Fold each of these.
Amino acid sequence: DNYITTLKILIIGESGVGKSSLMLRFTNDEFDSEQALTIGVDFKSKIIEIDNNCAKLAIWDTAGQERFRTLTPSYYRDAQGAILVYDVNKRSTFQKLDSWLHELEIYGTRPNMVKMVVGNKIDVQSREVSREEGFKFAKRHRTLFLETSAKTSEGVKEAFEEVVRKILET
Ligand code: GTP
Ligand code: MG
């Protein structure tokens, strides 16, 4: 059949924004309201079919908390895609996106890595960052953009699929 290669996709962003929850929703269609924070690196894979192509995604999820982060260079090495997550209800996590983009520039080894900015937790009614603001940030940095909820599933599948689609066409 038309089996393709493995694509490495990273999820990065501040602690508590929902990186592990987005991965769990996408790979297992599950949500845990008491999701434990990540220590070191977590990893899941999933085979997806997109536009009649199969791709195996290797999804890497790292700790947002600095003290729990290890092996940073190998985490970033050879990644084709990166999802940068913030919490739409917590402006400080949005303000940190610049430094996460900077990490990608330092450690990323592929010149045309596909990037997507994701505003998560849109199910919570205490928004501090508007959709418009998120969209403008993404546009300025030439990344894809979507808002999601790992809790309700809204936008989650679309986010991963858009990244994969873009990788496959570049
Ligand atoms: P670190 O591993 O510390 O970097 O955090 P993380 O970014 O992986 O966050 P995690 O997925 O552990 O989620 C943190 C908390 O937010 C957990 O209690 C989740 O259940 C909750 N959470 C994650 N996504 C959502 C969401 O879309 N909506 C709501 N309401 N809660 C969410
Ligand atoms: Mg985590």
Note: The helical segments are 19-28, 72-76, 91-95, 97-107, 131-140, 156-169.
Amino acid sequence: LDPRINDELAAWDRDHLLHPTTHTANHARGDVPGRIVTGGEGVYIEDRDGKRYLDAFAALYCVNAGYGRTEIADAISEQAHKLAFFHSFAGQGNEPAIRLAKMIMDRAPDHMARVYFGLSGSDANETNVKLAWQYNVLRGKPEKRKIISRWRAYHGSGIVSGSMTGLQSYHARFHLPLDGFLHTHSPQYLRRPDADMSEADFVNWLIGDLEAMIEREGPDTICAFIGEPAMGTGGIMPPPESYWGRVQEVLERHDILLIADEVVTGFGRSGQMFGSETYDLKPDFMTIAKGLTSAYAPLSGSIISQRVFDVLMQGTDDFGPLAHGWTYSAHPVSAAAGIATLNLIDDMGLVENARAMGPVFQEALKDAMDGHPNVAEVRGVGLMAAVEFAADPATRDWFAPMTVGPKIAEAMTQRGVIARAMPEANTVGFAPPLCITPDEITIVAQTLRAAADEVL
Ligand code: PLP
């Protein structure tokens, strides 16, 4: 490839594009080593220089079916030719959206009743909060409106979804979180407040904090609790086994709704179709996105329970139409991508592969990192996994946040494997396409070891 073409493109990129979660000044100055990706096949992507990378993070845990799937691309093309768009306001519809809604509800837990389509995980979480608020207003409890989330959670970058996100950098200088959005502790046993705490004591401590928050604020002011079944962006953190059962018991006792944010865990990543199955959750709302279309087109959904749907139905009988609509809700081209993706998930056995490869992935990481003095923990569920590093794991002497993790991830990239440095710690995260094989897993694990040995 003529390097001058790359130079010109890179200059246009610096001069015209404002990138998400990027150091704006460094990028504009040309100090960020950007990568312009041009193609992909299976678990591999290729950049403009022809360099191949094994993408062990499925872009942003979303290209779950892998790159280059013609079945999905063809479905998108066919639908765009037939009907690129018509809106779904006032009960109008399009065939792919209706078919996809049926496929999603066939797969969702039995007590769920309807799906409302959006375009991103962030907007689906905004929808969930609005519908949860409306549910309580319609029940004559308008003051029940606060939302409890957790530190280290990621629920999006909007005003409401960003308020629910529990990462400081997403709040600072944005006037977030909004009033009424609260955060309790995240269930990461490794970072328990006291090294001597058993896992059971740690869960008691978490539940105690949650109960205290609810009592302090007043149960009559709390609308919903939102959580990722297993936390993703906060560091890929499966919760202790008893955690969700205990949380749900508290929520039920105080008439607080549960929003399960399945944007990462949905459609197989946790080793079951939904993380709610893996952790035995009975949510009132489920947020879905990413894996729903394997990111071949933007699409998200808010799945609502029968009890919420019943109240919303009554509400429109009393007050008229549900005044909440995105132009592109139920976009037919995205829905066509969704249908093709769900069919591929079945045909390729991706949920089963995630379930089978999850332990293989964790074992490979453990084997590769065996004896490394800075490994504090190897953890994961299904095909999401992480390795957290510390200066001295035995004495819980942590590295300063983001000092080591990003360097290891970058050293992996240099060796042709993409992983992700998770924020606010020194954790390297993995969430590969669900079609990954044992040989590819071995490459990922060995590359992590080589990168860690280089950096530490
Ligand atoms: N919820 C979770 C759990 C996520 O991980 C993300 C994105 O990573 C979102 C919501 C936001 O989704 P989007 O980036 O599509 O708005």
Note: The longest strand covers residues 112-118.
Amino acid sequence: MIEMQDIWKTYADGTTALQGINVVIDRNEFVYIVGPSGAGKSTFMKLIYREEFPTKGQISVNGFNIGKLKHRKIPYVRRNIGVIFQDYKLLPKLSAYENIAFAMEVIETPRRLIRRRTMEVLELVGLKHKANSLPAQLSGGEQQRVAIARAIVNNPAVIVADEPTGNLDPETSWGIMNLLEEINFRGTTIVMATHNKEIVNTLRKRVIAIERGSIVRDQLRGDYGYES
Ligand code: ADP
Ligand code: ADP
């Protein structure tokens, strides 16, 4: 599903964020990415959703060698990858419904299908009754649910979640995890960077720890492994 071979990433200012990453993440896995701030977690995620490009090495997602992809093909790869952020990144002037529908419009989905599928994912995240609310009218947890609905609306093979519970209180965070587990159960691979020790140590899954740009630990049903 996701394969990295000797991936290196050096930013324009000379900062080396990843050095020699080798990893295989299979279809339907749920993987936590842990490690100190500045370790390279976000960079690792950005390479998967093609926000950044590797300086060296091979990366493939769902069979596409995305290091080499032509620019015009990017939207079609992104369609296979849903992204969730700590700060939700919803479009503030669009309603919950429109934020989700927009992700289908950009890949030219027929209008009838957009309506049906948008309502379906709103229902899945428990927010059908908030379809017409603007992001500012929703709680943090509800905004994250809209973001999750937007991430899954095109049926991606992979969800990349960068600190999805980072701005949420514990109870709301468990609700979000419940939803991500349900999405994973339905067949979507999930890669989630997190600092949430309690979640990692309770909902046991594969744990990949990154420190100073390298993978230092990779455990099935692993633990968080840091103090906080
Ligand atoms: P993490 O997500 O684990 O906190 P990042 O991947 O964000 O780590 O950062 C890894 C390293 O790369 C850090 O030293 C960070 O300062 C640096 N970095 C991240 N993004 C950029 C950028 N756009 N330009 C230069 N350096 C960056
Ligand atoms: P909260 O902590 O925000 O109350 P809950 O987990 O109790 O979150 O769920 C709130 C709404 O989200 C419910 O209406 C429910 O339909 C929906 N929901 C929660 N978990 C799932 C799930 N795993 N699959 C589908 N819908 C879910």
Note: Residues 11, 13, 15, 17, 35, 37-43 surround adenosine-5'-diphosphate (ligand 1) (CB under 6 Å).
